Structures are given as structure tokens and as C-alpha cells.
Amino acid sequence: MKPLTDAAVARLRDAVDRPDAGERYEIHELLGRGGMGAVYRATDRVLRRDVALKVLTTELESGDIARRLEREARVLASLEHPGIVAIHDAGTLGDGRPFYTMRLVRGRRLDEQSKREGRGERLRRFLGVCDAVSFAHSAGVIHRDLKPANVMIGEFGEVLVLDWGVAKVAAELASAGQGAPSPAADGDTGPGVAVGTPGFMAPEQSSGAESVDGRADVFALGAMLRTLLGTEKVPPPLRAIVFRATAESASGRYPTVDALASDVRAWLDGAAVSAYAESPWERALRFYRRNSALVLLLLAYLTVRLFILWWRGV
Amino acid sequence: MSVFPETRVSLVVALSSDDPSMRARAVDLVVSAYRAPVVAVLRRQWSLDLADAEDLAHDFFAHALEREWLSRYDRTRGRFRTFLRSCLQDFATTAHEAANRLKRGGHLIAVPLEESTATVTEADVDRLFEQEWVRSVLTLSLERLSAQCAAAGRQATYDVFVAHDVEGADDPPRYSDLAARFGIPVTQVANYLHWARGRFRGHVLDTLRALTASDSEFRDEARALLGREP
Amino acid sequence: MNKPVLGLVAGGVLGIFDGLTALVSAPEVAPQIAGIVAGSMGKGLVAGILIGWFARKVNNLGAGIAFGLVMGALFALPFALMPDPTTGQKYFWEILIPGSMVGLIVGFLTQRYGTAALAKR
Asked: Which of B89, B90, B95, B88 is nearest to B109 (CA)?
């Protein structure tokens, strides 16, 4: 047999990896690859629309990873929110690999988009992320891998939180902390093993502690906020928000994502931020910025009064 | 004799088996899969021409068998591929030192071994070794597919697959062109490709299984072969 | 706070303040200050509630300010035309201008800070 050319090697590797999604889905190009598997653009021949199809790399990935993909699909299916990518279908390919399809997001990652936008817009996007995560928390789901790369800005400006592959249902975490059977049975890493991304992982997460709750996501959101604010001069109240959200100890952070979002919203509205202790001068300045027209009108009135006083004295 | 074991047997077990035929099959498989990468590394790192590199590769495998290096592989210490690479490095370094001693002693040596004067880093050589290993695995799998198609009377299926995904890798031919060339309906081209790709995938994974010592090593090698960035 | 109530409160408070500032700009009226403050507060309350009612009907900052200015001037005018009963002196501009400005400020406050009424079902 003639030696295979480099082009042939590349093509054959692609042919081996490309999922056989049966008659319903036509597979196109590879969109991305992660620890669990690969995401392809595919066309749903029944509904005649493009979707994103996520599949394991090989059907002989450990059972844990296969179960993790299945659980990711179930988590996504349970979270119906405009900020969480919708799942359309799930199943097993002909070659035995589990897969699921979800909305194909056409847009940019948050970290790429934020380079083109001012601070205000970046903070509003951030509030969109908080909204989605808060909703997930209310449904008992903790993301555990929040970072700018896992957030997309869709073509209509919508914010979408992706990659719920290591998400955890809070009830499972609580039962693990109480000595219940290891969550590894459900396709997760066992206790003592860290999940997440360095730099965005809360300390209790990186140590693999079992007592991980929504405040781990608060930490990640704080780190995300710090990334979005960049190296430009950051106002002290925003710095204080980041500082509080990324506190080493979970008890030192905002108790909920809503509390974090509330402070960011307050800053955007020119209101007081709970994480920051203003000086009287800062408070006065902030009052003036929010009510400059009123302050100027009152000053004008006083000026007129003083003028009349002077005029009568002349 | 088929180079592939009929049942899933750990490579380590097969290499140190008391059954001579099992041992021979395992050795044949290792040589088939690793000969090309060994030759490539010897040529790149030690500036050998093809003939000399092939001779030295032959010597390497002969040494490995004679001294039972392969059966000493300990899967807890890493992948078999990494182990073989380091055996090769030791062998080539020893041969180079021996050649230098002989040269200083004024004797001729069979194969002069000079380290490449071009800037070749260890990472480059490792990358080359892996690339050639991938090529070997895919070639072995293609041979398996060819044998399977021949046995099943599906030569046309194999020919279409090769024409589209191997020979046509740079510029894949249109389905209509393939249909005309092989005298089959256009829809049949898609069916043949679908069938062949599925079987080819199975052969690749079987080859990897045979070349690895454990399930976790198999998964690692499968990811290395398949898990590329787009 | 809804707009009419805000107008009432702001008109009353600013009316009191406006009346008290007479002590500064015209110290000779000190003996009548109680009456001045009461009158100023009264016109502030009435003007304020009218301005607030207007703000509920017309959601436009410019129009609200203009209406406030006019209301302030209208309610200040009778007092501006009235001579001081003791000295007979008129304080026309000293009453009219600040009074109009108070109306302007109440107009701004009701448009900017008043909460709109819920839509009728």
C-alpha cells in the first residue's frame, strides 16, 4: 500500500471522528472540541434547520463521561430560560455514542465581544449572565464552570450561557456532603477532585470539597467581572464588587447571584453599592451626578435670591 | 497469519505470553505500527538516509526482542508509545556513543550515527514520532478494511472510499464523478462512503485497542488520534 | 410617590423655604414673616398639586417645566402686586421671580421623579 499523504491522514482522521448521526442529521463542520467531546454544526433534515450537535469523541470513553454528557442534556432540558441555550434532541448514535442537539448560536464569545464594547455595555452583558445563572440556581442547578469563554452573545444581542457539562444539581451536592453515595455514580468526578477552570474556580471547588454551593458560581462571576473590566482604570465601587464576589471564603461573598447583580445594577444606576463604603464627599458627588439638574436649579434659585439681596442693597 | 489478535488481549500480556503464536502476533503488530515512526525519527534526529535508517530500525527491533525490552513495559508508568520512544532514544544514543568510540579507535562502523546539525528539538522529534504513528495506525486500519471488503465482495465500496477519502483528500471528487467512474448510481456513492467510514472507524479503534495495554491508555490514544482542534 | 402628591409636598416645602428667604432679601418684613410663610406655603401647596396633576396628564419634561413656571408666576402675581400693608412698598420682582422659579422647580421634580399612575384597566 502506498504511504498515506498528510492530506489523506487528516481526511481519514476526520472521517473516523465524524459522527454518524443517521438519517435525521447531516453533519457539517467541527465547531469546537472540549474535554468531553466535540460539537459539530449539523442540519436537522426533519425541521430543516441548523443545530449544534454535541457528541463524545469515542464510544469507549469511560462510562462516567458518557453519563456526564447525558446528564448535561437533562440539565439543559430542565432549564428553560432565554439565557440558557435550548436543547432540541438527545439520543445515541449508530456507533453507540451519546449525543444531543441544541440551538446553534451564531455570534461571538463574551470575551471577544467585550473587546469591542464600552464598560457600560459589558456590564449589561454581565447582568444578562447573572440573570441566567440566577435562574439556574433557583432550579437547583450550579454551573461550576463559568467563564467568558462559556458565554456567547447571539446575533440578536442575547446573552447565552453554554457548557453545562460539569453542572451539578444542588441536592446531589448536599447529599454528597452528608456522606451519601459518591456522585461519581451519576457521571461526575468523585469527591476530592476539582472541576472547573483555574482562575475562575472558587477555592472550595479547586480543593474538591463537597460543600460547593451557588457561591462557587458567585466567585466565578466575580472573576468574570474582573476579566471584563480589564486593566483600564476601574472605579472603586466596581473594584469592591469584584473583591467581595471573589472573597476567599464563601461566607465573605455575596450570598446569591442576585445580590451580586443588584450591586452591579446599582452602580450602573448611580446608586449606592453595598460592597463599597462611600466617604461623605463621594456620596455627595454621586448625589450630584444622579440629580445634577435639580441641584443646578436649586443653586440657580439661591443665586437669584442672593442677587435680589444684593440688588436691593445697591 | 493475521497481525491482529482475535480477542482483546492486553498488549503487555501478549508480548510476554508463553504462547509463541500470540507473542509473535503482538510483536508483528508492534513492528507494523512503529516501524515507520522509528525510521522517521532516526532520519530526522540522526541525519540518516532511508536505507541506513531502515537498517538501524531493524536492529532496534531485533535488540528490543532479544533483550525483551518490550515485555518489560510497565503500563503504570505511561503509554506504550512513550515507552517505545524512550527505548529508541536510549538505543540510538548508545549506538552514537559506540560509533564515536570506534571512530576514535580508528575502526569502521556499520552505520555512522551523527546527530543532526539542524536545530531539531525533542518536541519536534516527539511530534514527528506521533505523526508517523498516526499514519501507521491509519494504514493498518485501511489494510484491514481492504481485507474485509475483499472478503465480503465489496471491492467497489473500498475503491470508492479510497478514491474519495484517500486519493482525493486534497480535492475530493464529486459524487457524480465517482458514480460515473465506478458505474454506480450517485446515491450509491453516499451509501458506500457511509458504510466504509463506519467500518474504517471500527478498524481504527480495534487497532488502537490492540496496541494499548489498558482501557485508559486506549481512551488516551483514541483522544490523541481523534481529539484535534478544528 | 405619585406626581400630584409629590407636587403638593414639594410645593409646600419650597413655599415655606421661599417665604423664609424673605427674611434675608427683605429683613424689614420680619414682623409679618409668619403670614408671609403661611401664604407662601399655601400658594406652594395649591400650585404644587396643579403642577403635579399636569405632570400626570402630560409626560413631557419641557412642558412640565413651562407649566410650573407659569403656575408659579400666576400664584405669585397677586402677592407681587400687593403693597406691604405697613410700609406700602411693593416687592414685585422679589416675589414674582423666586415664585416663578419655585414653580419651575416643582414642575421639574414632578416630571422627573414622580411615579406614573397605573394604567386604567
From this structure: B95
Nearest to B194 among A20, A30, A31 (CB): A20
**Residue among A17, A20, A64, A145 flagged as catalytic:** A145
In this predicted model, what pLDDT tens digit does every residue of B55-82 receive, in sequence order? 889 989 888 888 877 777 777 778 888 8
DSSP-derived letter for residue B94 is H
CA–CA gap between residue A275 and residue A249 (Å, rounded): 16
User: pLDDT by residue (tens digit) across B24-36?
Assistant: 888 888 888 999 9
Expressed as residue numbers, the domain containing A294 is: 280-311
Give the minimum alpha-carbon distance from A53 to chain B in angstroms, rounded to a whole number. Answer: 15
pLDDT of residue A182: 38
Q: Are residues A23 and A97 in the same domain?
A: yes
Looking at the structure, tell me whether residues A122 and A185 fall in a common domain. Answer: yes
Q: How many distinct structural domains can be found in chain A?
A: 3
Confidence of residue A133 (pLDDT cuts 50, 70, 90): very high
In this structure, are A40 and A138 located in the same domain? no
Interface of C with A in 65-84 (CB under 8 A): none
Contacts of A300 in chain C (CB under 8 A): 101
Q: Is A145 a catalytic residue?
A: yes
Does residue A137 sit in the same domain as residue A258?
yes
Residue A278 cell numbers, joined = 462611600
Tell me, yes or no, whether A158 and A206 share the same domain: yes
Residue A1 within any structural domain of the chain: no
Q: How far is CA C32 from CA A236, C39, C81, C94, C95, in A?
A: 52, 11, 17, 16, 15
Check if A299 contacts C (Cβ < 8 Å). no
